[in-house]
Design brief:
- By secondary structure, the protein is α+β, with helices and mostly antiparallel strands.
- It is built from 12 helices and 29 strands.
- It folds into 4 domains: about 60 residues; about 170 residues, no CATH class; about 140 residues, no CATH class; about 100 residues, Alpha-Beta Plaits (2-Layer Sandwich).
- The chain starts with a helix and ends with a strand.
């Protein structure tokens, strides 16, 4: 390729040759000299480009070995999903798939799959009413309704509210723990969530656990810790003997309530829980808080199963991702003898049997996709360059050429019917295994994601369940917009992310480390980062005003107000955890 480097190299060779031969003017030089320097410069520039590509590939491979795969793998979008079971008690698992459809102008509908991030027991129960001050709120056809209660005295204290939970006695009897989700409009108040207290109708305090999903950590899921950390302040697991609790109707709970409000059921027996917030939570703040049950984090991913014959196809298996899907992570791999394989990076045994490693490219010659490309090139050459055979004896070759064309037509039809179009596969990921001696086949499952395509779904999106009928999808909805899906498309972006992971070790020491962390996390979506000093009133008593580090971010597509506040709080926590400084951070998104 004749680029700037080629011309620079050619001119340098040409001038050195003219100096050696004592030629002052290029016009007086032999034309053969210009021809030879052109050839030498062209070959040397090709060699230079190959070395550059080789260096980039070597750096990419070494970096992927030295640092975790999370720096090259995509990030799935995520959100909070409220699920209603059809039975009284149901368990939702990561293998349960829910999907919605993404439509675009002039584009065919694309199914976008979401699955639960954790395994969770669901109960056929819901928060029917929320009482705060003299206000009662409830949901009708997914729309929040709020009315003022005519009562002689407030139903609850200024910094407290009551929730009425509707369920059957059988559900209360089966309920060991109640997973309650609290959504606060102003995300800055989540910093005081640990001060929230829960009481029953008799003013007995209810035990609460906040680290609900921490014990379910899975090392292969690189996105798990960040997503759990993102929503950790939303979940509260309440434990008490629910079957022995008093059940009161709204009429019995507060006889002074005005009995003329429309749309309110005064006679259904409900379980009442009092929630006491810190003193600075005003009535206006409480009225903007939403309480839900059966809510769990979901991520944009789809599980794919594949069987591989070791005897016939060898140790290398390709992990194709069709359409707009990308490999998210490997879920599990097991052979015909029941052995579970593990990542070679986590293997500390002397022998490597029963291990695997992921390769992102570099193994294409072992893949069926490369075979398809070679066959397509062969058919193209035979059909388009057939005139080259005219120089030979056509009568002698006609029969053989006709037979070759018929066989190529048959091969092409088989290739299309079995593998489809070559453009369906957009990711070249391979699994290199070291099987046990007696293993002949193994099965594997892995997750794929749509990355950015999964962002932007909200409570108005209609979801369906895949292959099962365990949940009521007419009532199940997202309660937060999905956010966070991202990929590292270019080789340069992947190398930059790997370099950051290798050099920083996820520590923040300088201002540049803050910029590097944010840029590798958001990529091209982040258009401006401004870092400056600030101040705030300390949360601890008697500390007064303290210094802070303010981080102002601008995105090409600004998140919703709710997601912006939640994302800012999450980034504050992440920067504080990674920083070696004791100065707190404040993040602003505009």
């Amino acid at each position: 390729m004749r680029d700037d480097f080629f011309y620079t190299l050619k001119n340098r060779i040409l001038h050195n040759a003219m100096d050696l031969w004592g030629v002052k003017d290029l016009q007086n030089a032999d034309p053969v000299l210009d021809l030879l320097t052109d050839i030498f410069a062209y070959e040397l520039s090709k060699l230079y480009q190959e070395v550059e590509v080789s260096n980039a590939q070597l750096l990419h491979r070494l970096s992927s070995i030295l640092v975790d795969n999370k720096w090259t793998l995509p990030l799935p979008s995520h959100g909070l999903f409220r699920i209603f079971p059809n039975e009284e008690v149901e368990t939702v698992q990561p293998t349960n798939h829910f999907y919605t459809t993404k439509r675009g102008l002039g584009l065919s509908p694309t199914p976008i799959y979401f699955t639960p991030l954790v395994t969770q027991t669901l109960y056929n129960a819901s928060v029917k009413y929320t009482l705060s001050g003299n206000h009662i709120s409830y949901y009708e056809n997914f729309i929040r309704q709020e009315q003022v209660i005519s009562s002689l005295s407030p139903i609850s204290n200024e910094n407290a509210c009551w929730i009425g939970i509707e369920a059957t006695p059988a559900v209360y009897a089966a309920m060991d723990e109640l997973l309650l989700t609290i959504l606060i409009k102003h995300s800055s108040l989540y910093s005081y969530a640990h001060l929230i207290r829960f009481y029953d109708i008799d003013s007995n305090e209810i035990n609460v656990r906040r680290d609900v999903f921490k014990k379910q950590l899975i090392t292969e899921e690189h996105y798990y810790p960040d997503i759990i950390s993102y929503y950790q302040d939303h979940f509260y697991s309440l434990s008490t003997d629910f079957s022995s609790q008093k059940l009161l109707s709204l009429r019995e709970f507060s006889p002074e309530i005005n009995l003329e409000l429309e749309g309110i059921d005064y006679d259904t027996k409900l379980l009442w829980i009092k929630i006491v917030f810190p003193n600075f939570f005003t009535t206006a703040e409480l009225q903007n808080i939403r309480f839900t049950l059966n809510t769990i984090p979901v991520v944009n991913r789809q599980q794919v199963y594949k069987q591989h014959n070791v005897k016939r196809n060898g140790r290398i298996a390709s992990l194709p991702c069709e359409g707009k899907n990308y490999l998210l992570n490997l879920n599990s791999i097991w052979d015909n003898n029941g052995h579970i394989y593990q990542n070679i990076l986590n293997n500390y045994k002397e022998h490597p049997e029963g291990t695997y490693s992921l390769y992102f490219g570099d193994l294409e010659k072992f893949d069926v996709r490369n075979a398809k490309t070679i066959l397509q090139k062969t058919m193209y050459l035979v059909r388009e360059e057939g005139s080259a055979f005219a120089a030979m004896n056509p009568e002698k070759l006609n029969t053989d050429l006709e037979e070759l064309m018929r066989r190529l037509d048959t091969l092409e039809r088989k290739m299309i019917s079995e593998w489809g179009n070559n453009d369906e596969f957009n990711d070249k990921t391979f699994l290199l295994t070291t099987p046990y001696p007696k293993a002949t086949t193994y099965e594997l499952s892995y997750w794929t994601t749509n990355a950015e395509e999964g962002n932007g779904f909200d409570e108005h999106s209609v979801f369906h369940q895949h292959t099962t009928n365990e949940f009521d999808m007419q009532r199940s909805r997202l309660i937060t917009p999905t956010i966070g899906g991202a990929t590292r498309h270019t080789e340069r972006a992947q190398i930059n992310n790997l370099r950051y992971g290798l050099l920083s070790k996820e520590r923040i020491v300088s201002e540049q480390d803050i910029r590097s962390y944010l840029q590798q996390r958001f990529g091209e979506e982040l258009i401006e980062i401004k870092i400056c000093s600030g101040a705030e009133i300390a949360k601890e008593k008697r500390r007064g005003i303290i210094r802070t580090t303010e981080v102002h971010l601008s995105f090409s597509h600004r998140p919703t107000e709710e997601n912006a506040g939640r994302l800012a709080l999450f980034l504050q926590q992440q920067l504080t955890e990674k920083s070696i400084s004791n100065i707190p951070y404040r993040v602003f998104i505009k």
